[in-house]
Structures are given as structure tokens and as C-alpha cells.
Amino acid sequence: MANLARREGIISLDKELPTIHEPFLRRALMLAVDGTDPEELRKIMELELLTRKNRKKNSPAFRIRRRVFSDIGIIGAVLV
Asked: Residue 20: what are its φ and ψ, rounded to 5°?
């Protein structure tokens, strides 16, 4: 994709968007093709990563694992 963008310009990546299955990469490329300022694009994608990380941390499965592992640590400390 980088070679295509260098040869034919960033707009040429628009036709490649339907073939990209990774949502994060597709969104970044859509913003780039739309002409988003590079600094603004970086901020948007960093915020996206932070949002994903927080969403994962707050999921019920993550909270259960965190509780179970902390309980196992306490039991291990008491037994030793």
C-alpha cells in the first residue's frame, strides 16, 4: 500500500479500502485518503487505541480474571 501511495498518490488507496479487514487500519487509511491533517490523524488513532484498551479493561471477563488472579495471589501469599 505504501508503494501504491507513493506511485499514484494517497487517493489511490481509496479503491483498496474494501479489501482491508482490520478496522483500525481501514479507519486510519480512510482518514488519510480524506485528507485529514497528519497530526490530527495521529491524535484520532491514539484516542482509538486508548478507547479500545479501556473497553477491554472494563469488560466483565477482564474484571472476573482480575479478581480471580488477585485472590490466587492472596492465597499463595498466605500459604507461603
From this structure: -90, 120
Distance of CA 10 to the CA centre of its chain: 22
Distance CA 67, CA 77 (A): 15
Q: Rounded to an integer, what distance in angstroms lies between the CA atom of residue 66 and that of residue 56?
A: 12
Q: How far is CA 68 from the centre of its chain?
A: 27
Residues 23-74 have pLDDT tens digits of 889 999 999 999 989 999 999 999 988 887 776 666 677 667 667 777 677 6
How many angstroms separate the CA atoms of 65 and 38, rounded?
A: 38
Q: How far apart are the first and last CA of the chain?
A: 56
From the list 56, 13, 57, the residue with the least C-alpha distance to 34 is 13
